[in-house]
Write a structure and sequence with these properties.
By secondary structure, the protein is of the alpha+beta class. The protein contains twelve helices and ten strands. The chain has helices at 3-16, 23-36, 39-44, 66-81, 87-102, 105-116, 184-187, 225-253, 261-278, 287-307, 314-323, 330-341, and strands at residues 60-61, 121-124, 139-143, 146-157, 164-171, 178-182, 191-199, 204-215, 220-221, 282-283. The strands form two sheets. Strands 2, 3, 4, 5, 6, 7, 8 and 9 form an eight-stranded mixed beta sheet that branches. A two-stranded antiparallel sheet has the order 1-10. Helix 1 packs across helix 10 (287-307), helix 8 (225-253) runs antiparallel to helix 9 (261-278) and helix 8 (225-253) packs parallel to helix 10 (287-307). The radius of gyration is 20 Å and the shape is globular. The chain starts with a helix and ends in a 5-residue tail after the last helix. 37% of the residues are buried.
Length: 346
């Protein structure tokens, strides 16, 4: 078996467990995977074929939320109206689902009060320390019970004008991040600035923020732990990918993107995958890897459209390339799938 096929198997196997991957898309994904094989993978991987996915021994109900029905209606509108006027509402509803999974009743009541006042919520994840949690600059410090959050976040959606914020931080000697909900009065203490030109016809601006604030234990979003994050991604990522595929089809209708028959087939395939995953009511060991593989495939298809000259203007090229990084870059998606799957060989 060729190296390319072995490398691509980490992603293709996940997608094929839902529906067979079209040949042209499979070739694109395999080439992307071999490109992303890093030094340790090349040196240490046995390069033997992956075993077929085994039936999960544990299956759990996947929570259903009223917000998903509204999100799905928005995604349908993206197909006919584009993404720019719907992006913020969709992202806000994503945040609402995350809060439902991780916040206490008291915290949810607080959020509802802010939202009713027209205060927008922000999710701050990307850190200048890079992908490794140990290198993050944003850290929750505990000094004899006195909590202080040192914030240094970049490229947050509208982070140049924070309302309230969910901030993901590291903790000393803890292998997993923790999320805190900062109220508007603490967000106002952070230094905020816009970064780069806006995306989506000027409707989406990114920003940076930094500073240090005193926080309390009541601000920790700790309900559900890491399992809640995985359920959140299972619910949200396929919906995000479907909105991107609808956006590309809308761009084609506007004459801004040219699609070959193979491109069109890949887009319809990804929409089908997303529909299958969003209709799922069971969460298992395969759920997260499938949505990671779906986002990986979306990233690589968008990159292919841009790199092959099928997107006509620079602003749209920049929009689509930005979406290959948001909600999981190709390397991050591939690395997570690889890390969980590398031990399962024939």
């Amino acid at each position: 078996m060729e190296f390319q096929s072995i490398a691509g198997g980490f992603v293709v196997t996940q997608l094929s467990s839902v529906s067979p991957v079209p040949d042209s898309l499979q070739e694109l994904l395999e080439k992307a995977c071999i490109r992303l094989f890093d030094a340790s993978m090349i040196i240490e991987d046995p390069l033997t074929a992956l075993a077929p996915l085994r039936e999960p021994s544990v299956k759990q109900p996947l929570e259903q939320f009223e917000q998903t029905f509204v999100i799905d209606l928005i995604i349908d509108r993206v197909r006919n109206e584009g993404l720019a006027d719907h992006f913020h509402e969709m992202i806000g509803l994503f945040g609402s689902i995350m809060m439902s999974l991780t916040a206490s009743e008291e915290q949810l009541a607080q959020v509802n009060s802010w939202v009713e006042q027209g205060i927008f919520g922000h999710f701050l994840m990307t850190d200048p320390g890079g992908p490794s949690l140990q290198s993050w600059k944003t850290e929750l410090q505990d000094t004899d019970g006195a909590l202080r959050l040192n914030v240094n976040k970049i490229h947050g959606i509208e982070a140049q004008k924070l309302g309230f914020a969910m901030v993901v931080a590291k903790q000393a000697a803890r292998p997993f991040p923790i999320t805190l909900m900062l109220p508007p009065e603490l967000c106002s203490e952070l230094k905020q600035s816009s970064i780069g030109e806006a995306f989506l016809d000027g409707k989406l601006q990114l920003g940076n923020c930094r500073g240090s604030v005193r926080v309390t234990k009541e601000m920790l979003l700790s309900k559900g732990g890491l399992g809640s994050v995985n359920r959140f991604l299972t619910l949200v990522r396929p919906r995000f990918v479907k909105s991107l595929m609808h956006f590309v089809l809308w761009l084609k209708d506007q004459g801004e993107v040219e699609l070959s028959v193979a491109d069109q087939e890949s887009i319809e395939y990804l929409i089908y995958l997303c529909n299958e995953q969003t209709s799922a009511t069971i969460f298992s060991m395969h759920s997260v890897n499938r949505v990671l593989a779906t986002k990986f495939a979306s990233n690589e298809l968008l990159l292919h459209l841009v790199s092959s000259g099928k997107v006509k203007n620079k602003a749209r090229q920049r929009d689509l390339l930005a979406f290959t990084k948001m909600e999981g870059s190709s390397y991050r998606c591939f690395f997570e799938i690889y890390s969980k799957s590398k031990g399962h060989r024939l």
